[in-house]
Automatic annotation (TrEMBL):
Pfam families: BolA (PF01722). Belongs to the BolA/IbaG family. This is BolA family transcriptional regulator. One of its GO terms (biological process) is iron-sulfur cluster assembly. The lineage of its organism: Bacteria, Pseudomonadati, Pseudomonadota, Alphaproteobacteria, Caulobacterales. InterPro entries: BolA, BolA-like_sf.
Length: 90
């Protein structure tokens, strides 16, 4: 992937030490839609599993992720679909 994806992965690894992190650039499916950029890295799907999410509701987990990625969300990333799990959840 590119620089934006690398930055996202690095920040999520630093913030949450996830046991699973899968980031998929889904930008091509949004060609012609708001926020799409030539070259991609504007729309992502994220699955992340980390102990930091244990006992937290879905919205709190998403807020933690958005806080860690505030620079990316304010700039190059238009949309981020999130599945945030605690270990043992599916």
């Amino acid at each position: 992937m590119g620089a934006v994806a690398d930055a996202i992965e690095a920040k999520l690894n630093a913030a949450f030490s996830p046991t699973r992190l899968v980031l998929v650039d889904d930008s091509d499916r949004h060609n012609g839609h708001a926020g799409h950029r030539v070259g991609g890295e504007s729309h992502f799907n994220l699955t992340i599993e980390a102990q930091a999410f244990a006992g937290k509701p879905r919205v709190a987990r998403q807020r933690l992720i958005f806080q860690a990625l505030r620079e990316e969300m304010a700039g190059p990333v238009h949309a981020l679909s999130i599945v945030a799990l605690a270990p043992g959840e599916s």
